[in-house]
Amino acid sequence: MLFDQVSNDIKEAMKARDKVRLETLRNIKKVFIEAKTAPGANDTLEDATALKLLSKLAKQGRESADTYAKQNRQDLADAELAQVAVIEEYLPKAMTEAEIEAAVREVIARTGAAGMKDMGKVMGAVSKITAGRADGHAVSEVVKRLLA
Q1: Predicted structure pTM score
Q2: Neighbouring C-beta atoms of residue 56, cutoff 10 Å
Q3: CA 143 to CA 148: how far, in whole Å?
Q4: Helices and strands (DSSP H and E) totals, the chain
Q5: For residue 80, with 0-12 CB atoms within 10 Å meaning exposed, 13-18 middle and 19 or more buried, which class applies?
Q6: pLDDT, tens digit, 9 for 90 and up, residues 80-125
Q7: Between 69 and which of 19, 77, 91, 145 could a Cys-Cys bridge form, CB atoms 3.0 to 4.6 Å apart?
Q8: Which is nearest to 137 in space by CA: 127, 147, 128?
Q9: Which residues of 114-145 are buried (b: 16+ CB within 10 A; e: fewer)?
């Protein structure tokens, strides 16, 4: 399980005295614990849920880095990107645009979607396939292009 792997990696980061990795892993563990103790979670954290949380953390980190870079604070942007790199080690390899397009085409063929009115149906099915491996905005753009 990802939760256990992160806990073990915290110990390794402490031994290696890797401050960036340790801080990032502690933040990940905090988010995981919050998710485990949330109402209705039954004190469990499935890997699929953990991957969604990691994707969200990585996206937030990239957005923060962009903001810092626009404000000419490259030192803070670099720190955010270093944390994002640690988070991305736990995420599956991201899908390429060609892989996203292939998944969307397959779902369109399977569901018989004919136009933009079927976008919600297609997005729902595609998001299950691409979960944690593709940005929702990128998937949405491909779906719009193929349904138009």
Answers
A1: 0.72
A2: 13
A3: 8
A4: 7, 0
A5: buried
A6: 999 999 999 998 888 888 888 898 889 888 888 787 888 888 888 8
A7: 77
A8: 127
A9: eeeeebeebbebbbebbebbbeeeebbebbee
Rg (CA), the chain: 18
Position 40 confidence tier, pLDDT thresholds 50, 70, 90: confident
Task: Give the span between the Cα atoms of 21 and 39, in whole angstroms.
Answer: 30
Answer whether 121's CB lies under 8 Å from 113's CB.
Answer: yes
Task: Please state, in angstroms and rounded to a whole number, the distance separating the CA atoms of residues 130 and 5.
Answer: 23
d(CA 61, CA 55): 10
| Residues 5, 7: Cα–Cα separation, whole Å | 5
Rounded distance between C-alpha atoms, residue 144 and residue 82, angstroms: 33
Q: How many CB atoms sit inside 10 A of residue 36's CB?
A: 15
3-state secondary structure 83-133: HHHHHHCCCCCCCCHHHHHHHHHHHHHHHCCCCHHHHHHHHHHHHHHHCCC
**3-state DSSP assignment of residue 10:** helix
